[in-house]
Write a structure and sequence with these properties.
This protein is an alpha/beta fold and 286 residues long. Helix content is 49%, strand content 12%. It has two domains: 161 residues, NAD(P)-binding Rossmann-like Domain (Rossmann fold), CATH 3.40.50; 117 residues, N-(1-d-carboxylethyl)-l-norvaline Dehydrogenase, domain 2 (Orthogonal Bundle). The longest helix has 31 residues.
């Protein structure tokens, strides 16, 4: 079976390398040649594709791209890859996108006789690298059952969510909650500064209270050390929370608290912190 992988950045790269480490034949395409080279270094079964169109030969194509419009540009329309893929092939998207875009991709694939799964990811590039990335799969049950062994090569655990919309919603909800927790943590640390409590000591104390969270455990020490190196970029967090809030609005839900986090992310972007880690919202909280 020949796999194709479009987008081998921080998240996609780890997944593609897991396929290569499992001795699967993988055609890799990315606009960044360094990302391609890093992926191919994982083993001998990977090969660089010079064009996106070359991946039409693959039996299973993965995409991991930043924005919904990137997916639509690459996959849809008369010149999109779906139009060139083989009938009976499978298309799996692992990007973080909105339910509407996932439905559009799913319907376009079905019209071409191509199976489709929407499979957003649950954690970070570190987990993607070690095949410990939770995967939330949405699509037809029979397609999921057929592709589950492949998904188990690149991630763990693998959850079946039902519809593609449910899979997208779960991922967006997760990121909205996570980024809102991060905003609350940053506000709390700023207040701690005003109280004269050293950041490391504050985190130690808060860890023994109801304030403890994943963001505190992971990003709290980075904040205390002034470490804003990008693990999950602020601009990507902004995109995800924006999509999530738009999703909530479309369903008549006012995600009011989460929109505060969205405002912080927008301000961080406006002040030039978009390429830093999402914890850089700390810089815009006074």
């Amino acid at each position: 079976m020949l796999y194709g992988f479009i987008g081998v950045g921080q998240m996609g790269g780890g997944l593609a390398r897991n396929l290569i480490r499992a001795d699967k034949e993988v055609l890799v395409f990315d606009l960044n040649p360094d990302a391609v080279a890093q992926t191919l270094a994982a083993g001998k079964t990977g090969k660089a594709a010079e064009t996106v169109e070359a991946l039409a030969a693959a039996d299973v194509v993965f995409t991991s791209l930043p924005l919904p419009q990137h997916l639509e540009s690459v996959m849809l329309g008369e010149k999109g890859l779906l139009a060139a893929m083989k009938t009976g092939a499978t298309y799996i998207d692992v990007s973080t996108i909105d339910p509407g875009t996932a439905r559009k991709l799913s319907d376009a694939a079905a019209a071409r006789g191509i199976d489709f799964l929407e499979c957003p990811l649950g954690k970070t590039p570190a987990q993607a690298e070690t095949a410990e990335e939770p995967i939330f799969a949405g699509g037809d049950q029979a397609i999921f059952d057929k592709m589950k062994p492949t998904l188990e090569i690149i991630g763990d655990p693998v959850y079946y969510m039902g519809t593609v919309e449910a899979a997208c919603a779960l991922k967006l909800i997760s990121n909205m909650i996570g980024m809102t927790n991060l905003a609350v943590l940053a506000e709390g640390m700023r207040i701690g500064e005003k109280a004269g409590i050293a950041a490391d000591f504050l985190l130690e104390l808060l860890a023994d209270t109801g304030a403890r969270s994943f963001q505190m455990d992971v990003r709290g020490p980075w904040l205390a050390a002034g470490d804003f190196q990008s693990r999950f970029g602020l601009d990507l967090a902004l995109k995800d929370v924006r999509l999530g809030c738009e999703m909530a609005d479309s369903w008549g839900n006012d995600a009011r608290t989460m929109k505060v986090a969205l405002d912080y992310l927008k301000k961080g972007n406006a002040e030039g912190f978009g390429k830093e880690d999402c914890n850089a919202i700390y810089k815009v909280i006074r």
